[in-house]
Amino acid sequence: MQLQDKVAVVTGAASGLGLGSCRALAAAGARIVGFDRDADRLAALRDALGEQAMTAVVDVADEASVKAGIDQAMAAFGAVHVAVNCAGVADSAKTVSKGEPFPLTTWNKVIAVNLTGTFNIIRFAAVAMMRNAPDGDTGERGVIINTSSGAAWQGQVGQAAYAASKAGVMGLTLPVARDLAEHGIRVVSIAPGLFDTAMVAGLPPKVSQSIVDRMILYPNRMGRPDEFAALVRHIAENTYLNATTISVDAGARMQAR
Ligand SMILES: CCCCCCCCCCCCC[C@H](O)CC(=O)SCCNC(=O)CCNC(=O)[C@H](O)C(C)(C)COP(=O)(O)OP(=O)(O)OC[C@H]1O[C@@H](n2cnc3c(N)ncnc32)[C@H](O)[C@@H]1OP(=O)(O)O
Ligand SMILES: NC(=O)c1ccc[n+]([C@@H]2O[C@H](COP(=O)([O-])OP(=O)(O)OC[C@H]3O[C@@H](n4cnc5c(N)ncnc54)[C@H](O)[C@@H]3O)[C@@H](O)[C@H]2O)c1
User: Fold this and answer.
1) Does 199 sit in the ligand 1 pocket, CB within 6 Å?
2) According to CATH, what is the number of the domain 7-248?
3) Predicted local distance difference test score (pLDDT) of residue 257
4) pLDDT given for residue 207 in this prediction
5) 3-class DSSP assignment, residue 74
6) 101: cis peptide before it, omega within 30°?
7) What's the ipTM?
8) Could you say which residues form the signal peptide (predicted)?
9) What's the CA-to-centroid distance between 230 and ligand 1, angstroms?
């Protein structure tokens, strides 16, 4: 769809790939609704984008919080046309560490934010999108863009919960697209490789450097948020993309050791 004056909800908007997506969609003329838990950094986003943006402190893992956020978007801008799921956490642990099993609290948190949180936004954004008149040119009512990960099929040491959550995001893409097609709503997921954001700073430094050196084909570096965001913008604008997961990883492939 053509993005001028459309309304885009972006989660994880305060940092990294979500922040980059807000910038790219705003540059395309969309009005931005930024959701995040981080109120301070949301204020910085509002300052940067001015009238074109509104923000709301939303915990994507909390159904009531998501519903309230979508309601605020509808009250402020009257519609939702694009929803981008970038909110995520990467809390990690080994399956067994020092004789102790992977903490269920860690598992539940990662699944609640990355998988259930993504589905919360999908469900409530889709309800809002169904109120749109079909787009004059494309007949669409909306597009939902989720963030999976290369970890969905190449998960790392400590990433049982994270990789499972991202595989779940990839897995829901096709059935949700099938559910929403009759309403003119597309669903596409992105599987990033290693991107230079606060999340990756959580990797032991020697690990991230060795990954870049040994596993990222070309260009041999981490990705930049604007490179992820350029794909988000293209997916939103290209009506023929639907029900698929697109990798953006410079050919990164995990080695066994
Ligand atoms: C991780 C990206 C790999 C990319 C490869 C290409 C695949 C395709 C692209 C996929 C990219 C997906 C990117 C993803 O969506 C986003 C992220 O992954 S952000 C990073 C999130 N965090 C983590 O993944 C976990 C980081 N690790 C930890 O938190 C801890 O190491 C641990 C797993 C909780 C274990 O903690 P401890 O028991 O305290 O042990 P140490 O931390 O001291 O580590 C022990 C030992 O293991 C080595 N190690 C740790 N993580 C990795 C790893 N990911 N790969 C290889 N080795 C790892 C660590 O260096 C220590 O080694 P030693 O010092 O003993 O030699
Ligand atoms: N950086 C990478 O290499 C990489 C690779 C593959 C996938 N991803 C995924 O991309 C997405 C964005 O990650 P990033 O690298 O920009 O990380 P980041 O840590 O810079 O940004 C994540 C944002 O999500 C927010 N957030 C966390 N939990 C939330 C919740 N419950 N409700 C609302 N907001 C919440 C955080 O406050 C933060 O602003 C995540 O889903 C991540 O799993 C990242």
Assistant:
1) yes
2) 3.40.50.720
3) 59
4) 81
5) helix
6) no
7) 0.94
8) none
9) 28
For residues 50 and 73, the answer to whether their CB atoms sit within 8 Å is: no
pLDDT value at position 256?
63
Q: Is the CB of 169 under 6 A from ligand 1?
A: no
Q: Amino acid letter at 207? A: V
Query: Length of the chain in residues, anyone?
Result: 257
Q: Which of 199, 212, 224, 227 to mutate to test the pocket of ligand 2 (most atoms within 8 A of CB)?
A: 199
- Out of 110, 199, 207, 209, give the residue to mutate to test ligand 1, the one with the largest number of ligand atoms within 8 Å of its CB: 207
Closest CA to 27 of 249, 237, 216, 186: 237
Give every residue of the chain whose pLDDT is below 50, as ranges: none
Q: What is the DSSP letter of 221?
A: S
Kind of pairing between the strands at 100-101 and 244-248? unpaired
Beta partners for residue 139, in sequence order: none
CB atoms closer than 10 angstroms to residue 31: 24
